[in-house]
Amino acid sequence: MIISKSFLDAQLLPLGRIIDTLAQLDLYIPTSMPINNLRNAVMLRFSELALAVENPQPDVAIQIVRAITEHGMLSRDEILKVAVDASEVVDGPTA
Amino acid sequence: MVRLLELRIRNFRGIRDLTLAIAGQNSALLGPNGSGKSSVVDALDFLLTGRIQRLTGQGTGTITLAKHGPHLSSKAADASVEADFQCGEASKPVTVKRTMDAPDDLVTPEGTTIPPSLAHYCSLAKDSGLHLLTRRQILDFILAEPAKRSEQVAALLRTEALDTLRKELQGAEKLAVQNVNKLIETKGTQSQALLRVFRDPTASLSEVLVKINAHRKSMGADSLESLASEGVLTGVTPLAKSAANPLQSQRVKSALTDTATWAKGGQQSWITDCDDYLNAVRSFRQHTERIRTLRALKLVESGLALVDGNHCPLCLKEWEQQELADLLSNRLEEGKDALAEATTTETLRKELRSKSSAALVQLRVLITDLGESFALQVTELKKLATSIEMFIETSLPSAVDGELPTEAHIIAVRNALIHPQTWSSVVPDLVLACAALPDLTDAQRAWDELTGAKRQLAEIESTTSTMRKSVIASAQLTLVHQAFIRARDEVLQQVYNEISTRFTAFYGAVHKHDDDGFAASLEPTRAGLKLEVGFHGRGAFPPTALHSEGHQDSMGLCLFLALVEHLSSAGAGPLLLDDVIMSVDREHRRGVANLLAAEFANTQFLLTTHDRVWWNQLRTVGLVFGKHLNSFRSWSLENGPSSEAPPILVLNSAKQALDSGDVPTAAHAIRRIVEMIGSEMYDSLGASIRYRADGGWSAGEYMDAAIGRYRALLKKSKAAANSWNQDMTMQIARDAALVDANKILGGERWAVNAVVHFNEWAELTPNDFRPVLDAHEVLLKQFVCESCEGSLYLVEDANGESLLRCLCGTVSLNLVAKK
Questions:
Q1: Would you call A83 and B473 a contact, using CB atoms and an 8 Å cutoff?
Q2: Residue numbers in A near B174 (CB within 8 A)
Q3: pLDDT tens, B550-571?
Q4: Nearest CA of chain B to the CA of A46: how many Å?
Q5: Beta carbons of A60 and B476 less than 8 Å apart
Q6: How far apart are CA B32 and CA B788, in angstroms?
Q7: What would the pLDDT profile of B499-537 be if each residue is shown by its tens digit?
Q8: I need a surface site. Which of B16, B629, B656, B684 has the fewest CB within 10 A?
Q9: Is B175's CB within 8 Å of A76's CB?
Q10: Which DSSP category does B107 fall into?
């Protein structure tokens, strides 16, 4: 995990909270990430809420957030692909 | 941090040639309407952004930068703005320039580059307009409808990235649902294909299992308990030789039979379906009002349920309740009619799509199973399949959502179905070839049907697996989308709460004496950003409801400052405030000046105003140093603005004029100084002068009133000091100096009045006039602090006059006596 100083400076949020959340997501923050406090604050809260999603497959939500954070922005097709790829089918009749 | 050192404007808007030396400090520019102040603002705006905000927006449709940017008689290439900036990371000042013929290019001298901090500041200016506040923007903040205000604030907060992500998440959620529906459709078609393997299109899945087990038994294998591709051929001994010709396969025969049906008549029916759909779309498209109504149908339904009181639940505009309810009811009825027509169109679309999917499945069977043995035919079949695949993959929009495909799209689909070679030659030839082949033996048929079933079941299983993943993904995307909306709303509300708090504090500082207990709230709504403010403890109201225009201007300024402060960009670069206190009365203008000085010490302000008193107050409160107070007296077409120097420079120019024997120029300079300083003294010391309807006060009257008031305050301060048994040295010294200066001036009073009022300067020599000039210099120095050069001013609180002081505190004289 690499977190740039400019990213942390731009957050104006508690450092511990950022580290905890990013660590759980195993996020890579590109140093070229544009500084936008509001967006970063929303993404941080978004990550926290995604981590807290309670359902049989919480990893799907995390994968989506991780992909968006890593790339800065994804198209709807790319988001859907991440979601489908991350979903796991439980055993059962298929026909 | 970026600071402006010098601004050079050439042939730009109303300016011919102007250089403003600012030296990285705050600067204030005074001038009457039409004197060229705003051209200076426009120039800096252009330099930073490549555009002029004033020339954009509503009502500026025919105005262009190239035509209206340069000075009237100048070419675009000669119109330029150049500036020197000091940037935090650069040791030397940086020069940048932009010319009107290349507004997109911010250029630097060869060998230099734009430092990141300046690039960031320019980016903020261009993307969110954070560098400039005009009165027009104040109106957008305060007077605008919530939606317009929301746009304005969103632009400043730069929420566009959030909105883009929200739309993509919403789009992905919708796409996931469409994807699941498509897979359900595909699975249905594949199931039909499985039944055709056994030539029994009405069989159930359990009956298919029975048929498979019958074939397995005939080939010596055990029965299966459930349908799964993996077990279909388990334990079955493969025939040494399967069907010698793929055309003998029952799966191929079945697919060929269906495809031949299309070739004979179905194709035409298919094309007719396309035409019907095309006509329905054309008919629907003619009623643009219906489409609009349909798109808003859900909104109207929700809105009608929310009508409760005399205002629109969406935009909060006032309405008669019944009138609004009737309007929405009528629109709902219109929407229902439109929905019925749209549903008919949608049915045609679904039928077309269903037929296409079914045909595609059969074509794929033929392409797969015929293989290399029929390479030429397969090539033709593939062309047709590709055309249909393109149609299916490119979803036609649904009319029920108020969306219609283009006619070109439908016609493209129609044309894709016309493959004469395939329909008239390839398929009939294959049918004939198939008929010429002998029937298969029972064992061959069983083997072929089992292998066909295995293949078809594998496809169904694959689709089912993808479908299950898609269902999970769809549910997850809904949760993720909801989480994002919640995160955005939480953060935005927190931001708005913080901004509201600061906005309230800023406004409270300016209006602490007349709007006590003021509080503001910003609340994001679906319709925009709702702003409500308190009014003397009587509840919360829209800012335009009860507050005066002047109070609204204060609110706009304070809200902008709160936003700028929140974005931590107050120190990013110079902040231009263009005549923003126009409607604020004089009592509160000093409050605004104090606010800027106290709360934005790290911000470089460039201010324009037409109010001389406020212009001087900016110096009094320490926001602007005297040498950075610039003023324009007038403007001419040929020369642009003509500048007026600050008092200290005017005094110097008077001395120079006198040194060169020019008494008239020195006399006029004195008159201007008296007016400039005198009017400020009245305001800052609370002096008064006998009212004259014609406004014709003499210089003597001005000065007598100011001196009298100052002496009265010194006397009051002496009394207060005496009551507290405190030292009175300063009061006594300042009073004595004032008396002495006034005596000198009194001795020259005849000359003052002669030169400044009666044009008798012609009778005076420079030696006659020099004592007059010296007397004014001595006297004027009595009204300023010798340390900070700021004017003395009176501080009043709820109990009345409390302190006479200067900005730096060197002069601080108590006026309240011990009780």
A1: yes
A2: 76
A3: 788 788 888 888 877 776 555 6
A4: 5
A5: yes
A6: 28
A7: 888 888 998 888 877 767 778 887 776 556 677 887 777
A8: B656
A9: yes
A10: B
- Strands B540-541 and B528-534 come out as antiparallel
CA A84 to chain centre: 16
CA distance B633 to B24: 24
pLDDT at residue B726 in the model: 92
> Is residue B492 very low, low, confident or very high in pLDDT (cuts 50, 70, 90)?
confident
DSSP state of B114: -
Give the H or E element holding residue B44: helix B37-49
Nearest-by-Cβ selection for B477 from A41, A48, A83: A83
Q: Tell me, what's the pLDDT at B617?
A: 80
Residues B717-774 have pLDDT tens digits of 999 999 999 999 999 999 998 888 888 777 666 665 565 555 555 567 888 888 878 8
Query: CA angle B31-B37-B40, nearest 5°?
Result: 150
A vs B, Cβ pairs < 8 A, gives 128
B/e letters for B139-162, b = 16+ CB within 10 Å, e = fewer, are ebbbbbebbebbebbbebbbbebb
List, as ranges, residues 145-174 from B with C-beta within 8 Å of A: 157-159, 161-162, 164-165, 168-169, 171-172, 174
Give phi and psi for B350, each to the nearest 5. -65, -40
Residue B586: name the closest of B607, B622, B610, B560 by CA. B610
Tell me: pLDDT of B65 over 90.
Answer: no
Separation in Å, CA of B774 to nearest CA in chain A: 57
- Cα distances from B357 to residues B186, B187, B424, B426, B454, in angstroms, run 7, 11, 21, 20, 21
* Vertex B259: Cα angle to B253 and B260 (nearest 5): 85
Beta strands in B687-774, from DSSP E residues, in sequence order: none
Q: Any bridge partners for residue B84, and if so which? A: B6, B95
Q: Assess: ipTM above 0.85.
A: no
Q: Considering only residues 544 to 603 of chain B, which have any Cβ-Cβ distance to chain A shorter than 8 Å?
A: 567-568
CA distance B809 to B788: 9
Residues A14-59 have pLDDT tens digits of 455 555 555 555 544 433 333 346 677 777 788 878 777 666 565 7
Does the reported pTM lie above 0.80? no
Token pair 């206190």 is found at B581
Write out the two tokens for B96.
């940048």
DSSP single-letter state for residue B423: I
Q: What is the residue type of B14? A: G
Max alpha carbon distance in chain B (Å)? 139
8 Å CB contact of A87 and B465: no
